[in-house]
C-alpha cells in the first residue's frame, strides 16, 4: 500500500494507459469518423478534398477542440487523484464540455457519412424500403447480396449515352 498516489507505479501505468487510449481515440475520430487528414485533400490542407461547411476554420477548430477535450479527462482525473483539484469540480466542468465535444463530433461524423454515401446509393438491410411492386422485392434482395448489385444510376446513364 502506498501513502501517496505519486509514489504508486500503478498510477503512472494508469496515466500512460489513459494517454495511449486518448491518442488512439483522437486519431480514430479525426481519420476514420471525420475522414480528415486525407492525402488527396488538395487545397484543404489536413482536411479532405470535399468539405461541406463554408470555412475550413470550422474543421481546424473541431480538430483542436476534440484534442483538448479528449486529453482533458486524462489530465484532470490525474490531478484529482493527486488531490491537486477537487474531483467534483472536475466533473462539473468537464461533463458539459464532453457533451459539447460529442455534439461537435456528431456534425462532422454525419457530414463524412453523407459524403461517403452520397451518389453511391449503398443498400443495407437495416433500412426498410418497401418496393413499389411486391415482385421487385426478390430482385432487390439479390442486388443487395451481390458486391456490384447496386450502382450509381448517374454513372450507368453516362455509359449508355
From TrEMBL:
Keyword Membrane annotated: yes
Membrane topology: Multi-pass membrane protein
InterPro entries in the record: EXS_C
Annotated compartments: Membrane
Keywords tagged on the record: Membrane, Transmembrane, Transmembrane helix
Domain of life: Eukaryota
Region forming the signal peptide: none
Main location: membrane
Transmembrane segments: 12-28
PANTHER family the UniProt entry points to: SOLUTE CARRIER FAMILY 53 MEMBER 1, XENOTROPIC AND POLYTROPIC RETROVIRUS RECEPTOR 1-RELATED
Name of the protein: Xenotropic and polytropic retrovirus receptor 1-like
Taxonomic lineage of the native organism: Eukaryota, Metazoa, Ecdysozoa, Arthropoda, Chelicerata
Amino acid at each position: 500500500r502506498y501513502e501517496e498516489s505519486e509514489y504508486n507505479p500503478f498510477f503512472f501505468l494508469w496515466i500512460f494507459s489513459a494517454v495511449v487510449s486518448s491518442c488512439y481515440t483522437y486519431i480514430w475520430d479525426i481519420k476514420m469518423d471525420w475522414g480528415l487528414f486525407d492525402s488527396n485533400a488538395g487545397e484543404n490542407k489536413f482536411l479532405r478534398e470535399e468539405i461541406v461547411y463554408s470555412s475550413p476554420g470550422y474543421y481546424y477548430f473541431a480538430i483542436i477542440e476534440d484534442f483538448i477535450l479528449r486529453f482533458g479527462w486524462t489530465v484532470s482525473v490525474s490531478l484529482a487523484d493527486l488531490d491537486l483539484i477537487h474531483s467534483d469540480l472536475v466533473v462539473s466542468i468537464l461533463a458539459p464540455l464532453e457533451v459539447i465535444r460529442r455534439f461537435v463530433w456528431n456534425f462532422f461524423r454525419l457530414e463524412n457519412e453523407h459524403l461517403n454515401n452520397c451518389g453511391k446509393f449503398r443498400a443495407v438491410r437495416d433500412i426498410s424500403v418497401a418496393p413499389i411492386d411486391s415482385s421487385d422485392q426478390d430482385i432487390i434482395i439479390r442486388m443487395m447480396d451481390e458486391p456490384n448489385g447496386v450502382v450509381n444510376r448517374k454513372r450507368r446513364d453516362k455509359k449508355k449515352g
